[in-house]
Amino acid sequence: MGLNSSGWALLFVPTLLGIATMLLYGFWDRITGKEYYVDEEILAYDEDLIEELKKEGKA
Questions:
Q1: Which residues pair with 30 in a beta bridge?
Q2: 47, pLDDT greater than 80
Q3: Dist. CA 52–CA 54, nearest whole Å
């Protein structure tokens, strides 16, 4: 009792898409070349904010 090709596709396609999404998310800063700052309140690509936080010693 094996799976037919559509059964295998139903298992592998979402799995491969999930893995690709995780890799893309994990390496997004390297792909875009932008540094991002995350804390409890914000996720920012704002360069001015990053510089300000570096001066305050928070980033």
A1: none
A2: no
A3: 5
